[in-house]
Amino acid sequence: MLEAIARHWTLDEAAEITMEANPSSVEAGRFRGYRAAGVNRLSLGVQALNDPDLKALGRLHDAATALSAIETARAIFPRLSFDLIYARPGQTPAAWAAELDRAIDLAADHLSLYQLTIEDGTPFAALHAAGKLLIPDPDAAADLYAATQDTAAARGLPAYEISNHAAPGAESRHNLLYWRYGEYVGVGPGAHGRLVPDGARQGGARQGGGRLGTVTERAPEAWLAAVEAEGHGVVFEEEIEGEAAGDEMLVMGLRLAEGIDPARYTALSGRTLDPRRLADLKAHGMVEELPGGRLRASRDGWFVLDAVVADLAA
Amino acid sequence: MTTEPISNIRNFAIIAHIDHGKSTLADRLIQSTGTLSEREMTNQVLDSMDIERERGITIKAQTVRLVYKANDGEEYILNLMDTPGHVDFAYEVSRSLAACEGSLLVVDASQGVEAQTLANVYQALDNNHEIVTILNKVDLPAAEPERIRQQIEDVIGLDTAHAVEISAKTGLNIEGVLEAIVTQLPPPKGDRTAPLKAMLVDSWYDAYLGVMVLVRIIDGELKKGQRIKMMRTGAVYEVERVGVMSPKLLVTDRLGTGEVGVFTGSIKEVADTAVGDTITDDKRPTAEPLPGFRPAQPVVFCGLFPVDAADFDDLRAAMGKLRLNDASFSYEMESSAALGFGFRCGFLGLLHLEIIQERLEREFNLDLIATAPSVVYKMLLNSGEEIELHNPADMPDVVRIDTIAEPWIRAQIMTPDDYLGPILKLCQDRRGIQADLNYVGSRAMVSYDLPLNEVVFDFYDRLKSISKGYASFDYHLTDYREGDLVKMSILVNAEPVDALSMLVHRSQAERRGRAMCEKLKDLIPQHLFQIPIQAAIGGKIIARETVRALRKDVTAKCYGGDITRKRKLLDKQKEGKKRMRQFGKVEIPQEAFIAALKMED
Asked: In this protein, which residues make up the domain named Radical SAM core (chain A) (predicted)?
């Protein structure tokens, strides 16, 4: 695949090529090959560092295997990230902070720390509905989030996004692209893309302009068949303009510690943020203006970002 | 058709508690006199509105003329007056009763006398009615006609020696009822040669014939082409059609003394006719109008608002149409910060309110929000001016008010003995003053004087629930009494919410305020900041709850570049915000108001 990309596009010397992998021993055996093919950043779905929780989360690996996969990866890839899931049933802020401390000891330069959420249609949702899976209430969840922020920041991995922590300069560049509402191509099964149509780019006047949203076929077999028959797997395209484009930028951009540029929001959406709502949000300490005019969600605002964005976008 | 001699006319009403068989008996009488053929019969012929049939109540007075050949060989005209059976229509009932000389008292032979029966029978006695007692449902295994006869004698004091035992359902002994009407009830009295004097009993709007007026001729006669005068308004109309209801209109061109019938004329609106008014001949008027006239007085008010603001014009049109047929219902435009544009409406009582609301929703397909009902307060201002308050939002500044008076009722409650304790407590809690307490067998009969204000607020629901549905309740308005009444405001984040303010007695303010704050606490969504909810009298806070600030509301993970999903969620949130009403910095969904205004505790 990397060879095919290199044939069609010119690759930047310093391009970030990330691969997501499971921390199993089979997968670890292939790390060297991935690296040789050009992958320079590995993201491991570790999820937890103790066996009972891994089992509860339905993962196939155990903690020892995960630790060994991390060690292998660290020796092979210049950049390493791994995911952890917290707010597991019964987890206390202290226990989680200790586990997170151990994780940071493993010397990754990037951590994705996700709070466990129950998605509709998953086995977790059924367990939760049956009362067999207790997740923390909003107060406990907020305490866990605060513990996450404090622990990671104290160890030099501040959050640059709601759930993503990195040493300065080690941020995930492809993810930043999504959050900054840049342009990206989605190729594989179930992938999303956001493209600036050629006409708009050449006109130059529309900074960012509207976006062409693309979605590819989800099911791998059907995706493969579509690619073979038509040369691509895109099954849905949509013009995203005006308020919708502005909303997308807000939803993504306010997840970042760097925030957004209100002027870019205006250019995309054709409207300005409601001054009254903005003033109220500032007064309640939910958003703050940075020198230079950028706007970002405050630390308090991050805890309730969905409500903050809904307010700003209303 | 010729007019019968007065001595062969009988005008009568039927008095019964709900479900004791009034409509079924009326159907049987119509059937067995051959007034309608089998083919034409439907159940509950006289209850023409869906709501009347479903609830087993009569809202509009109706009449039907039956022709009966009695055992004495004479032909009699029996005018059955079907009266509204509810206290809300007490005045209409009183006029219907005044148009008759006698009543059939229908009592279920197993259930016995109920509160509503009592109130109506006393009214009939006040109108000097002769009463034929009928024990219905004697075919049922639970029937105890002897015990119920005794009860009627004990409670009402009627002689039941000539009571007729029937089963309206099976048709058993309907003949006995007809004979009793002829033999036990007196014919009307009146002067055939005197100038026309007729009582306006009711009126309604017919899509084909226009306004139809139901009258009882007291003296003289009413003819087609006659110029008549409504004595209250002075308006003069030419009579176009004259006839009797059988039960459809049967044109007779004249109505003689003692008869009951209808006429149409050049009358535009039902509102031009006043129940109880006296109708006379324009050229040769009667000297004195009939006594007992009273203009329709709304007793209970509430705001009605469309759930969807776009339905406002439809609501206005629907109210206009309903009023065509019901002049006792009044409305005027009202605007509320919480609920938008709507109408402040006046009703004869709680049932009337319910009926109008249901008809608006059902017949006009409207979704409505009703604010909590309030009563009419009379205020004496320091300036000496007296005003009536229909809407708590219009209350003048307290420093301008000298006294406030509120309407009181006399309530009759009948209940199995087991529930008496909690019922007395309920009445006591609602500022009731016990007037009387009697026993009829194991049933207690208690009279209470109560402020209507306390009754419109969930009293009936509470009574039903503590007596498991066994208590029956009836009331009539008695007087206005001065009270220590205060306006209670509800503040959300320090902003008063107009739709929720109410007038309450000082002793009840804390209880009602606390209940409202607790309810709102669960209904107002969490915001980014904490929201105090307070009940206040003037500047004094009497109850307080807090909606805590939102602590955690953020999507943990954004999957790859899939922003579409997030945007769709955001669209839903924005859509929800559009349906919210803004109070200062707080956004409250309309559903929260609807729920808060529901009356149950």
From this structure: 1-155
